[in-house]
Amino acid sequence: MRTVLAVLVVLVVMTFSIQLTPNSPRPGATRINTNSLPVLIPDPVWSPLRETLDDSLQIQLRDKLSENPLWKRLIDSRKMAVGVVQLRDPLHPHFASVNGDEMMYAASLPKIAVLLAANEAIEEGDLPATPELEDDMANMMRFSSNSAASHLIDLVGLKKIADVLRSPKYKLYDPNAGGGIWVGRRYAKKSERNPDPIKNLSHAATVTQVCRFYYLLATGRLVSPARSREMLEMMSDPGIHHKFVSTLDTLAPNAEVYRKSGTWRNWHSDSALVWEPDSKRRYILVGLIEHPQGGTILKELVPVVEAVLQTNSPKAPR
User: Fold this and answer.
1) CA angle 175, 207, 169 (to 5 degrees)
2) How would you classify the pairing of strands 182-183 and 203-205?
3) Residue 314's pLDDT is what?
4) Distance of CA 174 to the CA centre of its chain
5) CATH code at 246?
6) Structural domain harbouring 287
7) For the chain, what is the domain count?
């Protein structure tokens, strides 16, 4: 009898020790793979992005950006907006922005809304997922093809895009929160307009809502986990190497970059989900600028924001 009890005690101790190894979750905890995208976080432990606002990061971000006299003038005149989400630990994101709810003309960046609406239509069975359609979506994202974007807008419809953006499911355009992402016209001359209700813009965005788009995408909450994974693939391997990507090519050559930018006259925009395999560089960055040097400013913005994230950085997940 004593021998049997001794064996049982040893087995219990061994089992408990295995459960508490450094790289294992605590007993009863949900296993979550945070090494690859999308990171699928269960609803009970997932937080809406606005609830992850980090006051300390917010202050540091504004102070650091304001050290540049030109940037400070643009921020004060509401012609420069920046949003960032620290994702080193995807279970505990940290969000901050400057002029976060200031809606600005964003040129091609809002094509992310066309991508979302098209995938919603596919999921609902209203649009067939053909190889040609997938090519259009990839070309629209990677090379910012206006013809591909316009073709997709024709297939989906401006009303459908607006309905998806304003839906309770996403609220990526919310009149009560400064507006957000909007596509109200094909990417072609002399086409029908459905301007946004607040500023009468055809292609618009706020950095907060674009950060929310990427955050929902990164956590598999756009359409479905499978559709989110496909959209990530379409936004990978950017074909235009300027602005954020130009800097990241040098600063983080091994990082995965999921990106959409835009340029028209003095309006410059960029957005990216940066995901490095070793988890030290994982964040969302969005910038909207109205200035002739906007493209250069966005290029210079990356290391400045990374310095802020490094100072404010939480510990990496184990």
Assistant:
1) 50
2) antiparallel
3) 57
4) 17
5) 3.40.710.10
6) 50-312
7) 1
